[in-house]
Amino acid sequence: GAQIAQAPPAQTPGKAKTTIVTVTAYIALGSNLGNPEQQLARAVRGLSLLAKSRLLIVSPWYRSKPLGPADQPDYVNGVAALETGLPPLELLDQLQSIEQDHGRARTRRWGPRTLDLDILLYGMEVINRPRLITPHPEMQHRNFVLQPLYDIAPDLKMPDGTALEQLLENAGTEGIVRLLNNPRSAGGDTKQAG
Q: What is the pLDDT of residues 63-88, one digit of tens each?
């Protein structure tokens, strides 16, 4: 049979440029053990070092009473915005690795912890997997997450179009206290909100 000669693929002079598609992920940070503010500052440094990612802005910290068992210290919470090219489950793995570096032990539901990192939003994606759900399913009920998120992204809308401002208005701000001595993040050009 006849054979058709194939031309070699066209070569572009110079190096091929690969484009990494990025999304903005919003990460909740929380701690109530082992000097929580220091734990959060270290976590922010960890976020700033993630591959294919750039820390954009960090909210002020807020103190709140614990969810669940009351026999534990108050929490300190905040939110960071991260521009990332990591796929969602890879980002989750990296966040869990940072938690483990902080001695995170998952012993009881809503129990005390040195560090808790949760993906609140991964761009505008609605993700429903066994290991990851975004938007975070409890986010709309947690003013200690909504207020710091509002501080850094006041015009944010959820994937379903609901304004963050509306969620915060529904949840209220009772029981959370903004801390005055927020550390600046160690992320070079990272902005600190507030």
A: 998 877 777 889 999 999 999 999 99
Task: Outline where 25-178 has alpha helix (H).
Answer: 36-48, 88-101, 143-152, 164-171
Tell me if 85 sits within 8 A of 21, measured CB to CB: yes
Report the candidate in 40, 25, 26 with the shortest Cα–Cα distance to residue 115.
40
- DSSP letter for 163, please: B
Q: Catalytic residue at 116?
A: yes
- What confidence tens digit (pLDDT) does each residue in 23-52 have? 999 999 999 888 899 999 999 999 999 999
Do 82 and 185 meet the contact criterion of CB atoms below 8 Å apart?
A: no
* 151 is known as an active-site residue: no
Judge whether 104 counts as a catalytic residue. yes
Rounded to whole angstroms, the Cα distance separating 71 from 54 reads 37
How many whole angstroms from its chain centre is CA 84?
10
Q: Is 118 part of the annotated catalytic residue set?
A: yes
**Tokens 């399913």 belong to which residue?**
137
Residue 115 near residue 124 (C-beta atoms within 8 A): no
* Active-site option among 118, 142, 151, 178: 118
CA angle, 182 as apex, 82 and 89 as ends, to 5°? 25
In angstroms, the CA 150 to CA 153 distance is 5
Q: Which of 42, 116, 142, 151 is catalytic?
A: 116
The model's pTM: 0.82
